[in-house]
Design goal:
The chain has 10 helices and no strands. It comes from Crypturellus soui.
Length: 226
């Protein structure tokens, strides 16, 4: 501010916002991220503007998740305050998405699609969540980003469960399992086995359910995860 560096002030405000978000001070975080947005728009800095929109989305997303943690409920069954907070997150992600499309930034589009999928899932809009996660998946494959691809499969599996499409969920969870083995991530592998066990229980294929729950158990014991 002293040297009149507006872009620098904008970036510093954005960093403050992200730090306050991590500290759980969501309202203060929004104020700082909004300053980042205002200055970026004033300076015609499209990249900064896109980043600020994404960060504000993240703050509302984190706040929504934080508020809903206190109530163990299924996605979609949310109190008004939580719903409104997640809808705000979704709006900012949408604005970010249209701007990064304009800028031709595919990696940023991937992140926006993933977050839109997650917020729509929490809001109980499962078909919308699926559409966003499919876009996320396509971009992850484009970049050869195996970790993002794995997350997309997992999220697609979860959303199909709530639409009672258990057979489709099982296919997505199998792809999650395959990738978690490729990535040598045992905790995620265990989680995928657990999801498959539950899905086969819903499909009333109890032999296979047992098989996957046993695999989950073995990895949990290996990891010493009580």
């Amino acid at each position: 501010r002293t040297i009149g560096d507006r872009i620098g002030e904008a970036k510093a405000s954005g960093n403050l916002g992200n730090t306050l978000k991590i500290l759980g001070q969501f309202d203060e975080a929004v104020v700082c991220c909004q300053r980042h947005l205002d200055i970026s728009q004033e300076q015609g800095d499209k990249v900064g503007e896109a980043r600020a929109l994404y960060n504000i989305g993240n703050v509302y997303h984190a706040k929504g998740k934080h508020l809903s943690w206190n109530m163990a409920q299924d996605p979609g069954c949310l109190p008004r305050e939580v719903k409104e907070t997640l809808q705000k997150a979704s709006e900012y992600y949408e604005r970010n998405l249209s701007l990064v499309k304009e800028l031709g930034d595919r990696a940023a589009q991937g992140r926006a699609y993933g977050n839109l999928g997650n917020t729509q899932y929490l809001l109980g809009n499962f078909s919308e969540a699926i559409a966003f996660h499919k876009e996320r998946l396509a971009i992850a494959k484009e970049f050869g980003d195996k970790a993002a691809e794995r997350r997309a499969y997992s999220n697609l599996g979860n959303a199909h469960i709530f639409l009672a499409r258990f057979d489709i969920s099982a296919e997505y969870y199998k792809k999650t399992l395959q990738l978690s083995r490729q990535l040598k991530d045992q905790a995620v592998e265990a989680q995928a086995c657990y999801s498959l066990g539950n899905t086969y229980t819903l499909l009333q294929d109890y032999e296979r359910a047992i098989e996957y729950h046993l695999k989950h158990l073995v990895i949990a014991q290996e990891l010493g995860d009580r």
